[in-house]
TrEMBL record:
Gene3D superfamilies: Acetyl-CoA hydrolase/transferase C-terminal domain, Glutaconate Coenzyme A-transferase. InterPro entries: AcetylCoA_hyd_C, AcetylCoA_hyd_C_sf, ActCoA_hydro, ActCoA_hydro_N, NagB/RpiA_transferase-like. Keywords: Transferase. This is Succinyl-CoA:acetate CoA-transferase. PANTHER family: ACETYL-COA HYDROLASE (PTHR43609:SF1). Residues 13-163 form the Acetyl-CoA hydrolase/transferase N-terminal domain. It comes from Halopenitus malekzadehii. GO terms for molecular function: acetate CoA-transferase activity; acetyl-CoA hydrolase activity. Belongs to the acetyl-CoA hydrolase/transferase family.
Length: 483
């Protein structure tokens, strides 16, 4: 372990490091896709006897050591900008923890310039550390911006992550406005940075050693609906790459994190793309992308996190040299950069809770009130992609709830952000459609047959009232009552 710590930084136990954190400090923690986050210091914070009211800012989702333990200890007062644990969700919905949701691409800047939160302490997981540098582990996320912003730095060196994982990293800083230079990345698989994050030596409080592994993703087996959605998406994309000159040489694609996204990745291996390269430019590397790389169906995968199952982690760690030829990890302000998403002509494929008849999408709040996670990177990709696809089952709760609804009670993505909707029922291409045409396409192509008549009746009531968007406002949210 000592060869991972260069120089002679202060070495602390987790308990000693926790004592260096003030009771109402703002903590900037590494982590994205529930990997690469600090583990032993947050646990020590949760186990301390002090009455704490901490603010925690992470680049993306983190594990139970933060979003379970700190909440259960009553030590977490405020949380930014994404979480995905049942414990933190309950605390936020009960009002015990304040939560503010943000897009991923701008988070680093908002922290760096004090628009969101000023960091007191950055707690960063690393696989190695030196006098003025650290090398992240399984995610990069917003670590560079967090380290730059925080007054003090605590580094957790995790010996369970192979040192060779550094081969994936491409850390590049964009500089500050108004003199920010154009990002010089010309190819999704290109490299423009280094494997490390630098910091001011005087900010380093100490180094803590850790041997806790990331909690791996647990992907459920694809359902019949997942497979039908994947088949519909594959058929659509096969036709689209033949139709559009945008995909003359390659298809550049992004998928949202989760079991459905992982299943959709796998379906691309069966797609007939002619002689076009398949390239991934997104946030997370999931097991489905490793499968595509193993089968020779994927040319490049660029992301900010290795969000893998236990089997996927073992496979990647055993063959780092092979995978490092095709996988690149970047800071989240590059992986989610609107400029790069636009430059590479990415096809964004994300899921959601529901979509209404006129194309507005709710990704985060059940019935518009109970938060599940956060908007994450879907806002970055849906708004800036060359083609935006929403993929979701037509129903939830074993068919008792339609995901195609008259009006969403919460909007994360507007009608202007969504081009195509795919469910197990079919595909609705909404490009150029009027609101009435959008509603008809969603009902006939994407809604479950059990709900089509009611949706048509709603649309007819709205049309009798008139207007460009024919809502029947008096009954618009009836579908969400008592759900």
């Amino acid at each position: 372990m000592r060869d991972r710590i260069t120089g002679d930084p202060p070495r602390l136990s987790a308990t000693e490091a926790a004592r260096e954190v003030g009771d109402d400090d703002t903590l900037l923690v590494s982590g994205f896709g529930s990997v690469g986050y600090p583990k032993v210091v947050p646990l020590a914070l949760a186990e301390s006897d002090r009455d704490r009211s901490l603010t925690v800012v992470s680049g993306g989702s983190v594990g139970p050591e933060i979003d379970d333990a700190l909440v259960e200890a009553g030590a977490l007062e405020r949380r930014f900008p994404y979480q995905a644990r049942a414990t933190s969700q309950a605390a936020i919905n009960d009002g015990r923890v304040a939560f503010h949701d943000r897009n991923i691409s701008t988070l680093g800047d908002e922290v760096l310039y004090g628009d969101l939160a000023d960091g007191d302490v950055a707690i960063i997981e690393a696989l190695a550390v030196g006098p003025d540098w650290l090398i992240p582990t399984t995610s990069i996320g917003q670590t560079p911006a967090f380290v730059e912003n925080a007054d003090r730095l605590i580094v957790e060196v995790n010996r369970t992550v192979p040192r060779d994982v550094r081969a994936f990293h491409d850390v590049y800083r964009t500089g500050r406005p108004p003199n920010r230079e154009p990002i010089p990345l010309r190819d999704p698989g290109g490299r423009i940075g280094t494997d490390r994050v630098t910091f001011a030596p005087e900010s380093l409080v100490g180094v803590v050693e850790s041997d806790r592994r990331d909690q791996p993703y647990e992907f459920r087996d694809p359902t019949a609906d997942d497979r039908a959605i994947a088949d519909a998406l594959r058929t659509f994309l096969e036709a689209e790459v033949e139709r559009s000159p945008l995909f003359r040489d390659s298809l550049r694609i992004q998928f949202g994190v989760g079991s459905l996204g992982n299943a959709l990745m796998g379906a691309l291996g069966e797609a007939d793309l002619g002689d076009r390269e398949l390239i991934y430019f997104g946030e997370v590397i999931q097991d489905g992308l490793l499968d595509l790389l193993d089968d020779g169906d994927l040319a490049t995968a660029s992301a900010t996190s290795l969000a893998l199952s236990a089997e996927g982690q073992d496979r990647l760690f055993e063959h780092v040299d092979r995978y490092a030829e095709d996988i690149v990890l970047r800071p989240a302000d590059l992986s989610n950069s609107p400029t790069l998403i636009d430059r590479f002509g990415v096809v964004a494929v994300n899921s959601a809770l529901e979509v209404d008849l006129f194309g507005h999408v709710n990704s985060t709040h059940v019935n518009g009130t109970r938060v599940l996670n956060g908007v994450g990177g879907s806002g970055d990709f849906n708004r800036n992609a060359a083609l935006t696809v929403l993929a979701l089952p037509a129903t939830a709760a074993d068919g008792d709830i339609s995901r195609i609804v008259p009006m969403t009670p919460h909007v994360d993505h507007t009608e202007h952000d969504i081009d195509v909707v795919v469910t197990e029922q079919g595909v609705a291409d909404l490009r150029g459609a009027s609101p009435r045409e959008t509603a008809t396409a969603l009902i006939e192509n994407c809604a479950h047959p059990a709900y089509r008549d009611d949706l048509h009746e709603y649309l007819e009531r709205g049309e009798r009232r008139g207007g460009h968007i024919p809502h029947d406002i008096e009954t618009a949210l009836d579908w969400h009552v008592d759900r």
